[in-house]
Structure formats: structure tokens, C-alpha cells
Amino acid sequence: MKIGSIKYEFICIVSLLIALMSCAKESEMELFNYLDLIPSHFPIPIIHPDSFPSEEKIDLGRKLFYDIRLSKNNTISCASCHQQSLAFSDSLAFSFGDNKAIGTRNAPSLANVVYQNKLLREGSLPTLEMQVLVPIQEHNEFNSNILDISKKLNEISEYRQMSQKAFGSELTPFAITRSIAAFERILISGQSKYDDYINGRTELSELELKGKELFFSEKTNCYLCHGTFLFTNQSFENNGLYANYKDNGRERFTLDPSDNGKFKVPSLRNIALTAPYMHDGSIFSLEKVIEHYNKGGKGHYNKSPLIKEINLLEGEKKALIAFLSTLTDYKFTNNKKFKNE
Hints:
This protein is mostly helical.
């Protein structure tokens, strides 16, 4: 799979040169190690030099990611809603927050979040560091604030020592957001059966190939929203899930009625593991998801023109599911680098 334009490649090269020039010899080795995590058919992520992951930042971020003390009453962690076995998503329509408070949107997968250019389902945030603050302060998630967390965790000598190694300071709010973001930037998924197929290391079955042809065909047009190596074009679309949306979607951020019911197109990587589906977790199986699109969705003034009746046969539906299942990356869901060990 080819990487974008010469302009994009130039930006990547410049970003790497800046990172290299701003780092000492030891940090150059960390840069090399990070690049080793990126599949050969993936582009190099564009990361600001100040946010580039180091081993110390990643170790601290991993520990924080699994720590329930980030929540007000020490009941949940980031990992509670983003479980590695589920490609860092959840199995519930709405995750439980601190003291069993119920969330308002389905928890998305964190796989390949380093490549996301706009975060949250309405795309209101541009950086992972900013995103880390959202669950911390939400009343139905961690129900806390970054200053209280910093004060609480700084009482733990291990955290003070780890933060000194990573940032040369105690565990400040800066260190908390930057280290968790550093850990999230290593959550790269690109070793599925489909990845092995496009790299010539395996073959797809007849049913999987039929599903692949359907996926990239004008009959379904799946690829128009779920193309690229990420299997999302990162646009915002209304997919006709409802005639009237309780959650206004991107309109909550832009205040533009033309964004009503629009949500960020999710990646389909590891989709077989991330049920239930949609922004509100209202569809519980891939079969039902395909049937939703097969029928053309419900009428809504913002519904994408791409959403229309497809009239797939039962065999075609099974083929699509077979192909989507090839996007499951078990090396990712079992990677020891991501575990709380």
C-alpha cells in the first residue's frame, strides 16, 4: 500500500530531522526503537519533537494507564474502558465510570490513535495530550481533576522516581498527560491477516477474497469512508442510524446544524473484537451493522449520500464479515509491551 504524496513524505522527513537534531545521542537510540514498532507498510507518524515517546515516558504512561487512582474514588483506570484483549475498546454500549456512573458514548478503540488527526467522536481535540484530560474531568468517567491526581500520585515514591527519569521533575500534570500520550502512541496495530496478505506472506480464502472485492467495490462503497491503511478516512458522517439523534454528534462542537448526527468515521481494524458498534453501542453484531447499511439506514436530512440500499445477498454478507475478520490483529491484542506487567 503506497504512502501519500511527495508533500506528505517531505513533512514526515522534516519532522524526523527536527526530532533528531533536538535529541542527544541516547535519544536517537530511542527514536530508532520507536520506529521499529511501525509496520513497514505504514507511514511514519508525524509527532512533535517535544511529544516523541521515550522508553521512560512510555513506562510511566503504561503504569498510569492501568492505575485506578486516576479516578476520584480509586475505582477505574484508562484500561477499564480500553482493554487490550478488545483492541483497547470495551464490550459495553456505555462504559462504567467512577462509582458505576454510566458513560454517554461507546468507548472507541485506541489502536493506531497516533495517526488520528482529530480526537473524540466529534473531533473536537487535536492532540492526545489534550484528550487525556477529558476522561479525568468528566463526572461520569474519572470524576476528578489533574491537580488532585498529581498531588495524590506524588505521594508515591515510585511515581516520583519514574517522573524524574522521564521528565526531570516530580509527577506534574504535564508529566501525566505527556506520559499517557506517549504510551498511547505505541499502540500500533498492523499485523493482521490482511496485512500479511498485502505483504505477500499469506493468502486469503475464497470467501475472504469475495468479501474484499465487495468492500472495495462501487456496489458497497465501503472503501470510500473506510479506505487508507487505517481503514478510515477520518471524516465525519451521518450514517442514518436515527431519524432523530439524542446525541447531536459533531454539532455539539461546531454548533453547525449541518453537523447534526455526524460522527467521526471509525477505523475498521480489529472490528470483529470491538462490539457493540456505533457511537452509542446500539448495534451488537457485525451482521446487524451490515444489515443497517444494506437497508440504507433511516431518513435524516444530514444522512450521507453514500448510505443507500445495497441489496446484498446472504452469501455476500457472510463474505464481507469474513473479510472484516481478516483485520483482526492478535499480535496487537497479545503484545507484552502493552500489558500491565
